[in-house]
Every structure is written in structure tokens, then in C-alpha cells.
Amino acid sequence: MRFPLTALTTAAVLMLAGCGLGDAETPANSPAASASGGVTGKVSLQTWSLKPKFTDYVQGVIDSFEKKYPGVEVEWLDQPGEGYADKVLSQAASGTLPDVTNLPPDFALPLARQGMLADIGRSDTAALADYVEGGLAAYRFAGLDGVYGYPWYLNTDVNYWNAELMKKHGLDPAKPPANLDELIEQARTLRDKSGGKVYLMSRKPELGDLTNAGVKVMSDDGKSFTFNTPEAVAVLDRYREAFKEGLMPKDVLTDDYAGNAKLFTEGKVAWTTAGGNFISSLAVDNPSMAPKVVSSKAFGTPPLYVQGVSVSARSKNPAAATALARWVTSPDNQAAFAHLTAIFPSTKASAGDPFFSKSDGTNGGDAKVTAFASLPEAKMLQPVEVGEAISKVVKQQFSLAISGGATSKEALDTAVAKADELLQQ
Amino acid sequence: MRGFTGENVLRYALLLLVLVLTVGPFAWMLSTSLKGSGEDIFTEIPAFLPQQPTLNNYARVADSIPVWSYIANSLIVAAMAVTGNAVGATLAGYALARLRFRGMKLLLGLTLGTLILPGEVTIISQYVTVRGMGLADTLLGVALPGAIAMLNVLLMRTAFAAIPDEMDEAAIIDGADAWQRFVRIGLPNVKGMLSVVVIFSFIGAWDDFLWPLIVLTNPEKYTLTVGLQYLSGAFSSDPRLIAAGTMIAFLPIAVVFGVAQRFFFRGVEEGAIKG
Amino acid sequence: MTRTFQGRFTPWLFAAPGLVWLVVFNLWPAFNTVVLAFTNAKPLGGGHFTGLANLGRALNDDQLATALLNSVIYMLVCLPVLTLLPLLLAVLVEKKLPGITFFRTTFYTPVVASAVVVALIWEWLLEDRGLINGFAQWLGVIAEPLPFLTDRWLLLLSAISLTIWKGMGYYMVIYLSALGNVRRELHEAAAVDGAGAVRRFRSITVPGVRNTMLLVSVLISVSALRVFSELYVLSNGTGGPGGQDMSVVMLIQMYSRGFTGHLGYASMLSLVLFVVTVGPMLLLLRLNRKGA
């Protein structure tokens, strides 16, 4: 009976702290709580894979926070990219979640369900006005009241085209395909003209592609999947035909998201989708290809990727933790971060910043501007309920349908049944 | 130098054949780690030899992460694992192979049994145990669960079991007790397997990623495999750096292997004289 | 009882450290797994007793049936090949020739190569336009590239080759240590008698490493039934179209990892795999007893 008791006391502390914070709160645009709100003590901040490239930036944010609140001491823990889910899970399971943790929405959902995260809709209502709605929506979950994270940085995908390959094989890189029909048509041209040597497409459809085709992936209450519709069958059938026609490499059947970008980097395919900073990583992996790449807006509704920081419901210094979470995600600090790399702030204040809307003239700069321009209409195309296991069974069934091992309808029915099974309990 | 007999030529031919089949990963890593920043790495057919060979990537690894302190942490963990296994697994293996006692069969069965049960689901419960001992976020906590691996107990048991019974019987007649028999007859005859256990436990501890990641929270205590992950960060990953890091992590393994493999044979001198 | 190490507790003194580790770090988690197998536990929360519900679910799980079939095929191929090839390799590198340390170390490198590097190299070999397909097409042996990485059976075969490639060095090391104990005098006596290399191998080497061969074959069957990384790496974690190339451990991994994993069901799958593995192992031990 220990857990409910601690939970109760934590909740009580949180509410008290929330009130204190609310009283002392400065107007909505100020990023931080007032020092009189009890922002003291030791708090831990856990980030994901920001060292060593952003060590100076994060340390700067922490130093300025400690300077602003002299009674606070911040312990910074940066975890490596690989295995982060396991790390956070073991922290959560053993009750040692850091006070402030970088959690993408699909990590935050299960923790919020267990009451492990503070609802900032209750503890820090004034903050909500600072952030764009898409960012906040990512931390509101079906079946739960409240907002369980401060949106941090955002990203989306754009299309990248290998202009050299396109020109060489009779396509105009200035007029890349703008939808699936054009994509398949140009893929055919490229295949024929290159004698089957170069592909345009190298990507299986995902749940996001179904969302884009108007399929409702999940019921509103987040309790069951609904993507086995005729529209979904039509999408899978198109890809299946294209695969049969030889418009995609066979290895696409087992390639994951990174596989697509990898094939592009190797010069085997002429199209990939990736985030706004793809060209800069291309410049490292394949420097001679990087200048020959052009970008265009994603097909349909662009996907929205959100990172955020959540406050542990069991934090011993909730006032300091909340202040730190807001400080890290404040308009100024986010803008400074976004100037360092191709990510985008989740605060409204940055919307008019010409830095994001004007290209420096390079193809990398163009891609960043394309991505930024897509952000307002970008949406999370895949429900947060889709965890690792569910996305794996969906991938398996989609690839079975495309390979011809089952009809699209059968594959979709199996995928929905298995995904529902995984969702339950 | 002995002359090239027909047998030796055949041996070298076979050795080279196997070498071609096994050397791939090593050669690829080495080549990538030496490539300059202007070279393409992921072209359709990557150039095997670096065109602008440089050691710069190694220097950059040392600049980007505290590689020396990670190596020190890894060495501490590996040393604990090697000591624990060399002592604990050897003693237990001896008991299972050469001493008769009630419950021996049951113990052997349980040891084998734990090898069969998949460990994938137990990692969190393992963490809770280590945390309960107050060893979360310590290097000791990383080393502890693997400090006596049941696989090594079985390996040592097999080695001890291969010693002819007559040797023990003669010693018993001479009045030697279990400890004396262990030291005088047991140990000298299992040097080979002992070095295998040293290699396996060193490499196991050195290469482990998920477990140290879960146990350790403070990045200063990270072991090398965990720390090297910083080279493939969220917004930056240079395969040349990763390859250089992998090579750095690989070197100590090669050294330990090279040293330990000399003990595979009962006496190094014997092999040198008669081989 | 004048001497310290003569008493009836002596064996227990030797076994004590190992015993403590056995109980704390092996039996206790195993016990937990057994308990969890009858609950609906999740990594966070859950954990109500659900009786035999997980077992019923497992018996009706067609993916588990496929995975078990894959694992058994895997074992049947790996067991003979990996019991013998590494022994031959050990005999090859046993002799102290100039540079032999280099060869021994290099043969061992696949064991410690990181999964990422291994995946890169093997995909480069096996892709549609990989080295092997390219070479076979150039020779004119095949017209169309073989789908080594996407066909259900070819992918399994590719993974088995990868296992053998990695396992050679590993088991070679174990054999090498055992070969050191095979008496050199026996070999020399036999050579003087005029016995050929093949006969010496069969009549001296094999009997000399008999116990080690048994242990190695037990280890091979256990690890073949528990194959994970090779299939995972070659299929980029997808388990092939329709998940037809998943092994049981891949299934366990899929269900147990992540925030919403079905820990209870994954534990039940572990028990199923345990039961399946015990069979071949008892058989191997029995065969050995008969042979001895």
C-alpha cells in the first residue's frame, strides 16, 4: 500500500506548488516563474542525445537558469540516442525518473497513464499560451485530462530528390512529383530510361500514408484501430502494383525508415523523405552528392514530429522542476537552439523569425525553409498509441501485402486485429 | 625458420582462405576510420582503400568524448568480471566436476537450466535487484550480475572433468585434501579453458551495452560502449568517427585475446619445442 | 577431520560463490518470469493473475508456430555444421606457425564485430544488387537477382550463414583450449605408425575432445533455438514480410520491450521456449551417455 500513499502526497505537494507558482506567475509571455515561488533545491534534467554537439548550448541554458534562481542546482544527464526507451522505462519502473525529462509524446503517454507525469494544464496553466497548438496537442492524450509535457522542438519531413540522377534519366528535377500518381509515373520513366538501374521509390507505405489518404487510423477514444477500410486497401494496392512492376527495389520489403534514406545516400534511389537537416548529414556521409540534391514539400499533409520535456509527478522540488522545464522550452532558448541546427521552435514567438523563412541560398537552406513553411499544416499522422510492437506488426503486414503474400484486405484485417490485441489490457 | 613443407603450404593456403572470409568487418571498420572527410563512404561500391588516409578521426573521437575515462570505467568493470569468473566459475566448476556431494546433480541441472531460459524479460527485475542492493549507478552494479556466469561454470566443469581420474586417486592416496588436489592437479590442467573464460568474460563485460546503460545514470560513469553512442548523436553522426570509436574499443579485445590465447596449450614451451 | 578441506562441507565451500550467483542472478529472475507468465503484467503497472490466459493465447498464436518452426530449422542446420567446422578450424590453427596469433585473432573478430558493421557488410553482399547477386548474374548462373533478404526461406538461410560465420571463431576458441589437453605423444605415435591426417583426426582428436564436443553441441542448440540478432539485423528488425522470419526470441523481444510491452505474455513465451529447448538437450545428454 505504499504507492497510493506516496502518490497522494506527491499530488498534494504538486497542487500546493502549483498554487504557489500560479500566484507568483508573471504574465504569459515570461518564460519563468518568479523566484519567490519556491524555486530552490536540486533538480535533474535529462536530455536525449544532445552531447557532445550541443553541450555548450545546454550548459548555457542551465547556467543562466541557475543564475536567475540562485538557490537552484541543476544536475544535467544526457543519455545516448540508442536504448533511450529502455533507460526511461527502467527509471520509471524503479521510481527514479529525473525531475525534468525529454520525452517524445509516445514515451509520455504510458507514463502519464501511470500518473508519473505532472499535468501542466493544471500546475502551470499560464504557460500554455506560449506554445503552438500542434505542440501542445501532442501531449494531450485520449482518455486523460490535461497536458503532460512542454513542447520543445519540432520537425517535419520534406521530399529530397537526387537532381543528377533525375536529369540523367529524363526527369525534370524542377518539377518533382507532387502526389502518389505522379510519383509512380515518374518512377516508371526513371526505371525505363535507366534500364532498371535506378529507382525513384524505395519506401513502403506507413500508417501516415493512410492518414493522408483520408483513412481514420484509430477510434476517437484511442481504444481500437480502424484502418482496415476500402481506402486503405486502395493505397496498399497501388504500392503492390508498383512493386510488381519493379518500380521499387525488392529490399524495400524489409527496409525500415532509415533504409530509404540510406539507399538515397548510396545513390541507388532518387527520392527520400527526411527532416529539414538531411542535407547537412548527407554532406558528411556522401559529400559529393550533397550539392546535387533538391527538396520539395512533403506529399499531402506533412508529418509533425514533436519533442517535449515533462515534469515528474514525484519531483521533490516541483516548483524548481516546472520552472526549469519552462526555461528550457522558453521562446528565447528555443530560438537559440533552432539557430544551431535545423529544428524548429514550438513557441509562437518564433513564427515571424526571418531566420526560418529566408533561405541562405544553399540547397540545405532551401530545405529548411520548405520544412518551416510546412509546419503550420503539419500534423501527427500516426496516433501516439502506436508503440514499437504495434508499428512492427503493421509494417510486417503491409510488406506482406506488397510482396503479394496476402491480399491488401487480408493484411489490413490481420494488422488491425493484432494491433488491437497489443493495445489491450 | 623451418622450411616450407608441403603441409605448411597447405595450412597457410587454408588460413588465408578463412582469413578472406572473416576479415571483412575489421577491414571495413579500419578503412572507414582512416577516410578523410572529403571521401564518400556510402557510395554504391565503397572504395576499399582510403584515398586521403588520415588519423584525424581518432583525434576527433578523443576531442568529442572523454574517451579515456570511459576506457578506465570499462576496464574496471571488465577486471571485476574477469576476476569474479576466473575465481568463482573455476571453484564451482571444480566442485561440480571432481567432488562428490548430495545435490550435485540438481545443481548441475539448475546451472544448465538457467542457460536455457531466455533472459530478455528479466532485465528490469535484474535492475530492481541491483538497485535494492544500493548499487544503482555504480560500476560494481554493472559488473555484479555477470561476475559469475553459469556458462563459464559449465565450461570449467567440462575442463576439470577431462582430467583422468587416476591422477586424483594417486593424490588421495598421498593424503592430499580437496584444496591441495585443486591447486596441484586441477588448475595446471585447465589453463586453456581458464584463458577461454578470461576472454569470454572480458569481452562480455567490454561489449555489453544495454545493461550498463540501464544501471548507470551519471554519464561520467559510462562504460566505453555506452559512451561511444554519443558519437552517433541525434543531429550528427559521422560514420568515420563511429568507425574510429569502434576500432578504439576493439584494440583492448585484440590485446587480451592475443595474450590469453597463448595459454590455450598446456605449456607454451612444449608447443614451441615440439611444434 | 584434521584438515580444513576434507570435510563433507568442502564441496559446498567450493561451490558457494557460484551458488550465490546462481540463486540471486539466475534463479530469482527465472522465478519472476514463471510468476509473470500467469499475469497480464506490463513494464509499468498491471500484473493481475490471469491464470492460463497467456498459455491459451500462445497456443493460438500462429506467429509463435511459425517462429518455433524457424527456430527448430535453425537448430537442425547449425548443430552439425557448427559442431564440426570450428573443430577443423581449431586443428588448422593449433600448430604454432609464424604469424599464427594473427590468424587466430582475426578468425575471432567476427564474434566481437558490432551488429551495425556486420549488418552493413552482409547487406552489401546479399542485396538485390549486392556482390553475390552481381557475381552470379555476371557468370550467367541466374537471370534475376535472388531475394536473399526478403524471401522467407532465403532470409532464414542467409541468417544461418551469418550465424555460422560468427560462431566459427567462438567455438574454435573453446575447442582450441580442449585440444591443448589431447596428448601430443598420441599424435606423434600415430604419425610414426603411418596414420594419415584424417585417421588421426578421427581416432585421436575427436575422442580427445569428446566432452567438449558435447558441451559445444549443447551450447549451439540452445543458442540456435534462441537466435535473435542475425535475423533481426538482416531483416532490419522487421522479421520479414508478414513476420514470417521471426524467431521466438524476436517475438519475446517484441512483446517485452517498450513502454506498453506485454511482459506477462512475453514471459509465457519464454517458458514455452524453455520447454522446447529442454527436449533436444536431454536427447544430447542421453546420446552421450550411451556413447560413453
What can be said about this structure in brief?
The complex is a heterotrimer of chains A (425), B (275) and C (292). Chain A has 18 helices and 9 strands. Chain A is an alpha+beta fold.
What do you see in this structure?
The complex is a heterotrimer of chains A (425), B (275) and C (292). In chain A, 45% of the residues lie in helices and 12% in strands. Chain A is of the alpha+beta class and 425 residues long. In chain A, helix 10 (230-244) packs across helix 17 and helix 17 (388-403) packs antiparallel against helix 18. In chain A, 53% of the residues are buried. Residues 1-36 of chain A have low confidence and may be disordered. The two termini of chain B are 12 Å apart. In chain B, 47% of the residues are buried. Chain B is globular and about 75 Å long. Helices cover 67% and strands 0% of the residues of chain B. Chain B has 2 domains: 6-54, no CATH class; 65-274, MetI-like fold (Orthogonal Bundle), CATH 1.10.3720.10. Chain C is mainly α and 292 residues long. Chain C has one domain: MetI-like (MetI-like fold), CATH 1.10.3720. The chains are: A alpha+beta (425), B mainly alpha (275), C mainly alpha (292). Chains B and C meet through helix 1, helix 2, helix 4, helix 5 and helix 6 of B and helix 1, helix 3, helix 4, helix 5 and helix 7 of C.
Give the arrangement of secondary structure elements.
The complex is a heterotrimer of chains A (425), B (275) and C (292).
Chain A: H1 2-24, E1 41-48, H2 55-68, E2 72-79, H3 84-93, E3 100-103, H4 105-113, H5 120-123, H6 133-137, E4 150-156, E5 158-162, H7 163-168, H8 180-193, H9 207-212, H10 230-244, H11 257-265, E6 271-274, H12 278-285, E7 293-297, E8 304-311, H13 318-328, H14 331-340, E9 344-345, H15 354-357, H16 363-374, H17 388-403, H18 408-423
Parallel strand pairs in A: 1-2, 1-3
Antiparallel strand pairs in A: 3-8, 4-8, 4-9, 5-6, 5-7
Chain B: H1 6-22, H2 24-33, H3 56-64, H4 67-98, H5 104-116, H6 123-132, H7 139-143, H8 150-161, H9 165-173, H10 178-186, H11 191-207, H12 210-215, H13 224-228, H14 239-260, H15 268-274
Helix pairs in contact in B: 2-14, 3-14, 4-8, 4-11, 5-8, 8-11, 11-14
Chain C: H1 10-36, H2 53-59, H3 62-94, H4 100-112, H5 115-126, H6 131-139, H7 152-179, H8 184-192, H9 197-208, H10 210-225, H11 229-234, H12 248-256, H13 263-291
